[in-house]
Amino acid sequence: MKKILGFIGLVLLAAIIYYGFETYPKLDLISGFSSKSIASGHFIDNRSLETIQQGDNDIDMIDLAKNEIDETAKFASASVYGLKSRKAIYREGLGAVLIDENFDVNKPYAVPKRTKLDNNLPFPYGNNEPKDTVFSTIDYKKLNATVANAFDKKGEKKLRTRSVLVIYKDKIIAEKYADGFSKNSKILGWSMTKSLTATYFGILQKQGKFDINKPAPVAEWKNDDRKKITTNDLLHMNSGLEWEEDYGKISDVTKMLFLAEDMSKSQAEKPAIAKPNTRWYYSSGTTNLLSGILRQQFKTQQEYLDFWYSSLLDKIGMNSALVETDMAGNFVGSSYGWANTRDWAKFGLLYLHKGNWNGEQILEESWVKYVSTPTNTSNGQYGAQFWLNAGGYFPDVPREMFYCSGYQGQMIAIFPSKDLVIVRMGLTEEPDFDFNGFLKEVVGSLK
Fold first, then answer.
1. Does the model's pTM come out above 0.70?
2. What is the DSSP string of 271-316?
3. Residue 388 burial (CB < 10 Å; 0-12/13-18/19+)?
4. What residues are paired with 393 via a beta bridge?
5. How far is CA 331 from CA 76, 177, 205, 250, 262, in A?
6. Is the sign of the CA dihedral 258, 262, 264, 267 positive or negative?
7. pLDDT by residue, tens only, the chain of 447 residues
8. Residue 23 to residues 28, 30, 62, 81, 329: CA-CA distances in angstroms?
9. Which end of the chain is more exposed for a tag (fewer CB within 10 A), N or C?
10. How far apart are CA 91 and CA 86, in angstroms?
11. Which residues is 63 bridged to in the sheet?
């Protein structure tokens, strides 16, 4: 019996050592993700610590973190087993930022100047309530049933949809929110932010201030073959640069999001492993590099910050929107855009209407075609920071659909010929949430 107990003890000890060996290097990332998520969710959307822990942070290993909020100093901290404590501070206008021990919390910082749309118009071209409109061409019974079925029934926790909004001919024809969420709730779009980032290049191109087909202005590449990489290649995720986009381990993307001071440099420092336009590979580092390139277009930090709001977000009335910055002051264009569901829908409508917003051409029509045209080697799945259905990824959904997509199933789906935009925000992706079936049924409700 002593031998058996001794053997069991050795096995348990080995298991503990192995678990510690595997887990310890990840603690920075676990506590980093957790503290950042807590700070953002609490200070941007006023969610309670308990709500965030039970919702946003109930992810394998992330749920190991112990979290605290300091209301006075406006920060959240997290640690795992008392180890690797991390802190994320909140700054009004810039959101939450995960900081390291070298970050000077007392250093002055610029904040974007905001302008609220106030024109007494109903949604979507104003912030007043939309006018009720009933279309004879819509099967409302089918539509409402489809939307209702996108949400969990009481006591369930599988679909985890937070909001659904359907807009047809600029009118809201369906809108529903999960308990605890409303039309005013600001929800993180994750990688839908990439589509926002791309849009700024379209705006600059329309203004004649940037040429995406010229070599990307990256100083580190001037003396090697990377100098051939264009901004167009970066927008298409087709630069040929090395990158690992794996959120389940210590990888390029997790080190960038939870350890890097200047996220715009993470991709710039990587070597080329293929020629441009020959290897499509999804990279959040590429989008943050694009954000850094945008920063170069302005003389001051203030101009850079203001441009993201004055040229797009506030111009189309996305007044709830907030894009968070990294420690170096760059917008985290890959991942950290927040807005309420109606405002995310406005962004979709801008593209539905080929860059025109209530009579003002913010983007050239050619830009909308550009982002929705498949990039080489993506099998019809990707354009320029937008996802596509051209390759039939969703088999029962029109091939014309292009969409913004974010971690855990955030989506703005755009159907040009249907005059339709569908927004779904939540905490689950496929296969738990059937996007193909959901989109098929919503489109099918239009007679």
1. yes
2. PB-S-TTS-----HHHHHHHHHHHHHTSSSHHHHHHHHIIIIITTT
3. buried
4. none
5. 20, 29, 20, 23, 10
6. negative
7. 555 555 554 444 344 333 443 455 689 999 999 999 999 999 999 999 999 999 999 999 999 999 999 999 999 999 999 999 999 999 999 999 999 999 999 999 999 999 998 888 999 999 889 988 899 999 999 999 999 999 999 989 999 999 999 999 999 999 999 999 999 999 999 999 999 999 999 999 999 999 999 999 999 999 999 999 999 999 999 999 999 999 888 999 999 999 999 999 999 999 999 999 999 999 999 999 999 999 999 999 999 999 999 999 999 999 999 999 999 999 999 999 999 999 999 999 999 999 999 999 999 999 999 999 999 999 999 999 999 999 999 999 999 999 999 999 999 999 999 999 999 999 999 999 999 999 999 999 998
8. 10, 9, 11, 11, 31
9. N
10. 17
11. none
Residues 6+ apart with CB under 8 A from 213: 230, 231, 232
Which residue's structure tokens are 């955030």?
410
Two tokens, residue 377: 């080697």
